[in-house]
Design brief:
It is a single chain. By secondary structure, the protein is α+β, with helices and mostly antiparallel strands. It has one domain: Cytochrome p450 (Orthogonal Bundle), CATH 1.10.630. About 50% of the residues lie in helices and about 10% in strands. The protein has 17 helices and 14 strands. It has helices spanning about 10-15, 20-30, 45-50, 80-90, 95-100, 100-115, 125-130, 130-140, 145-160, 165-195, 200-205, 215-230, 230-245, 250-255, 260-275, 305-310, 340-360; strands at about 30-35, 40, 55-60, 120, 210, 210-215, 280-285, 285-290, 290-295, 300, 365, 375, 380, 385-390. It has a five-stranded mixed β-sheet with strand order 1-2-10-7-3, with helices on one face. A three-stranded antiparallel β-sheet has the order 4-14-11. The chain has a two-stranded antiparallel ribbon with strand order 5-6. The chain is globular. The chain starts with 8 loop residues before the first helix and ends with a strand. The structure holds protoporphyrin IX containing FE (HEM). Protoporphyrin IX containing FE binds near residues 225, 226, 233 and 332. The site of protoporphyrin IX containing FE has 24 residues, from helix 12, helix 13 and helix 17.
Length: about 400
């Protein structure tokens, strides 16, 4: 699996710590730059082009995460992808996700109950990890007790390097977890066929477009993608967000006293922190952007991070504007592959910010703590988020 960071280690740290400064400086060098051997497209128009021109920039052919088949829908192009999204998008609509809210509110408060009396918490492990995990289990109608398996599974698939330095061993670990996930979901799918429920897996079985339904293998390929797409991303946004707000008492006051501002705060947070800084595509046919040639077989990186800080798209892009409207950030991508889980992610982020600020209106980074930012495989995050109440 190719997990090469596209910048040398020092640069990765700089980008992880302050992506706004880093990507603005990179953009000043040009609309397309070659950085550590990778072609990175930085301006919003170029980013839009890479993410929507499938004839030249394909989602096919990237790594297969220890399996022989592509994951669905991420690693497919139109027209196949169009069919998948017609089936899947209605199952992840705002209305469908709203059903999950009461349970999400209860679970978020249960997490806060666990640490509020202590006067401090490590918000990543104690809140930012469990919330998306529990949401995903509820979405799929699976027991929360199985969550540790999902955590191990997505870590092994996404970060095998953390488990071994040996490349062959990394591939073996990925295959082992991919096979375990296939066995797990094969069993779940068989159970749902026998007794459908109101969960996403049952929804996938029932959905059809023009009389054509998803096969069990296709459902499996969607299930495989969800833990990889829907856990670390939300964890990163919650942890990065709470750390950011911890240094801004003015914004804490707004969030605590005007809960109606949470909606725009979440959108601005998504823009500001942009957890996935760049999206990968395979060049399918010879083409060029701004005079930079792209050859078949190469990889193109669309920097949604740079697009999110571009003055041609945002007024005062380097300012956090909690009331920013409209907010046309590209944090969920753009075009047909726009994040399938964006309504769920938005719901999770709103619930966490609302419930946290109701109960913990003033907080700061724990005295003496040093925040370790990272940008592994183009997902920004923090190792820990130690916060204390003021
Ligand atoms: C803050 C949280 C999240 C962020 C920042 C995020 C970001 C993204 C981005 C940028 C893409 C487009 C990828 C591309 O074009 O290559 C994407 C796709 C996707 N996301 Fe998310 N995501 C988040 C949460 C979720 C959640 C909670 C789920 C589901 C449980 C999810 C499921 C998916 C799926 C299935 C795709 C593939 C869509 C397609 O290819 O058609 N994501 N996400």
């Amino acid at each position: 699996m190719d997990k090469a960071a596209f910048l040398p280690p020092g640069s990765v740290r700089a980008r992880a710590e302050d992506p706004r400064a880093y990507l603005t400086a990179l953009r000043a060098q040009g609309k397309v730059v070659v950085d550590a051997g990778e072609k990175v497209v930085l301006d919003p128009a170029g980013v839009e082009r890479v993410l929507t021109d499938f004839a030249h920039f394909s989602c096919n052919g990237s790594n297969f995460y220890g399996r022989s088949r592509a994951i669905i829908p991420q690693q497919t192009d139109p027209p196949l992808h169009t069919r998948y999204r017609r089936l899947l998008t209605p199952l992840m609509s705002v209305r469908r996700m709203a059903v999950l809210e009461p349970e999400l509110v209860a679970r978020t408060n249960a997490c806060i109950d666990g640490f509020i009396g202590r006067g401090w918490c490590e918000a990543r492990a104690e809140l930012a990890v469990p919330v998306p995990g529990i949401s995903l289990m509820n979405l799929l109608g699976l027991p929360v007790e199985d969550l540790p398996f999902f955590m191990d599974f997505k870590d092994a698939i996404l970060r095998p390097r953390a488990l071994s330095d040996d490349v062959d061993e990394q591939l073996r670990i990925q295959r082992e977890f991919a096979d375990a996930s296939t066995r797990y979901f094969t069993e779940v799918i068989a159970k749902r066929r026998a007794a459908p429920g109101d969960d996403l897996i049952s929804g996938m079985m029932a959905a059809d477009v023009d009389g054509v339904k998803l096969t069990d293998d296709e459902i499996l390929d969607v299930c495989f993608q969800l833990p990889m797409a829907g856990l670390d991303t939300v964890t990163a946004t919650i942890a990065l967000g709470l750390i950011f707000f911890a240094g801004r008492p003015d914004l804490q006051d707004v969030l605590a006293s005007r809960p109606e501002m949470v909606e725009s705060a979440v959108e601005e947070l998504l823009r500001w922190e942009t957890p996935n800084t760049a999206l990968k595509r395979q060049v399918a046919q010879e083409t060029e952007i701004e005079g930079c040639p792209f050859h078949p077989g190469e990889r193109a990186l669309a920097s949604i991070g740079a697009a999110n800080y571009d003055p041609s798209r945002f007024e005062r892009p380097l300012e956090f504007d909690i009331a920013r409207a409209p907010n046309r950030h590209m944090t969920f991508g753009t075009g047909q592959h726009t994040c399938l889980g964006n309504h769920l992610a938005r719901l999770e982020l709103r619930v966490v910010l609302r419930e946290w600020h109701k109960r913990i209106p003033r907080y700061r980074v724990k005295a003496g703590a040093v925040i370790a930012y990272s940008d592994d495989n183009m997902t920004r995050t923090v190792a820990e988020a130690p916060l204390e109440w003021v």
